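ESCALATION

Customer reports they have been waiting on this structure for their group meeting. Please prioritize. Original submission:
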Amino acid sequence: MPKNPNGGGSTPPDLSAPVDSAEPAPRTNGRADSTGRNVGARKKQYVIAPRLAEGLQTLGLQPLQFAALEQALRDSDDIEVIDKVGPKSVLGALADGMGGNQGVLVARMTEQKAAALHQQGQGRLLVEHDQHLNLMEPSLRQPAMVTGVAPIDSSGPVLNAIISVFGKDGAPQANAEVSLFGSMLPASGVTGANGQVTLSLFGETADTVRGLYVKPKADYWSFYQRDPDISSDDANVVVLRALSDWPALKGFPQQRCYGWGQKAMRLDQLPASYRGQGVKIAIIDSGAATTHDNLRTIHAGFDVLNKQTNPNGWDQDSIGHGSHCAGVIAAADIASGMRGFAPDAEVHACKLFPGGQISQLIDALEYCIDKQIDVVNLSLGGAEISEALEQQIIRAKRAGIACIVAAGNSGGAVQYPASSPNVLAVAAIGKLDEFPADSYHAQTLDSNVDAYGYFTAKFSCLGPQVAVCAPGVAITSCVPPNNFAAWDGTSMAAPHVTGLAALCLAHHPDFQSQQYKARGAARVERLFQIIRSSARRVSLGDQSRIGYGLPDVLVSVGLQAQAGAAPQAMQPQSMGMMPMMAPLYDPYALGVMPFYRPAVQYAPLAW
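Update from on-call: job pushed to the front of the queue and completed.
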């Protein structure tokens, strides 16, 4: 890429300049008739942002005049600017301590135009695909040896099976997800009002069926049967267990209880006055159903998806994911249901799902900066690293916002943004005897079980970026409209740590002192350090699966010192890394100028 001899001056890219490679002509697939139109690539959505000033200084470049670029984009005939995300107040504009935030543009254009714009930016401009984000909920895993192949011969065998799902006292369970696995493509469906669904497995017989999975909508345990005896002549009946039939949930939800994960972190031993007062928490997820008795205390939020038409639609949660996270973090301490970690914290529900994208997450974090949020729960992730999002996470951290992020559920490397050095990544663990053996939760079990029954969840992502682990298997919490469900995922683990972080900020003596009372990156780092230092080793999994281990509530709020020595941890040198804190910004860490360094902070920390 040619370098400007004057250090890449502030002149915006010339959008009228010709693109080096002409856009390909639409393919006709050999058709010349008028019965339809050929499918081609549509314009894609991009995030456009100026690179952070410190990144430009490293490269010897001058900042870009972003206002001029914005005008040029808006004047371009083949570029559609659909949104601008930026500071919502003077407070937001000054949040990074530099006062130079110019916002982020969201625009639609062709790939060729985006490539030309990026090249003309000469390293001063970020042009990224506005990728879609996913909730960190584990997908249903197929049994071993099942393939995604469809039968070629349509005249082959077909297994038609009726699955009838019932609950307590023979009540049919509507809207239960049912999946039947053979040796090829599975069949899935949802039960009707009568609790029944008919599934068809092509190319299969009753003898080749390898698994039956049932996920109820609410109030019951899931069901999984390996190698089920399926009949094609009679209805196949599945009777689900009620959550309240489990000994640890006896009398639930009429009688209030703590989840097993909260008890594992010793929330039930915390004095009643420790309730997270004065701390602001944002849950960037699918909203929060305030129809739920335990979530009625949530009064604020922002619907990022519908900000132009209904920004107050955050209290509608069609998925239930955000409500489930909110219940773990801050469910009201009332006589029924469950108590969250920080029931007196001020909770803001930012609705980003279904369909959230990087630009909208940037917008949600801008809301958090403007509202002076203290802790953000991010039970989400993307397929690729985003430097534009990382710049916003850095701004949030400098504004005193701690981002707690789910590590991911692919069973592979930690996903982004949990892999960022500026957040706290949380992996998931489970515990034996906290779910029925015939529930799907049993399929998350791996061989790393310790003497207390803790195990690393099979789906949980791993890597040196994992800071701590938390309960993420068979976690019971709130779902709309006023029900409960037991779910798995690092999505469920992260809220445990978010709630603990709120308690720590509200009650640990350090955050009442002048040094850490002021908002800023130092306060966030101190919070992360205390959480890591409170943890204890659990499961027999290696350090990359659990980080420092399972955080402890009583230690995190300063009521108890960590018993014994600091938690044993992998030394950074043993992983080929230097024992140092990750920088806020390191443009050469990946060799392609984005920000990310796979830092590990496993050396014991004194506090």
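Sent to customer with the following note: The longest strand covers residues 158-166.
Escalation resolved.
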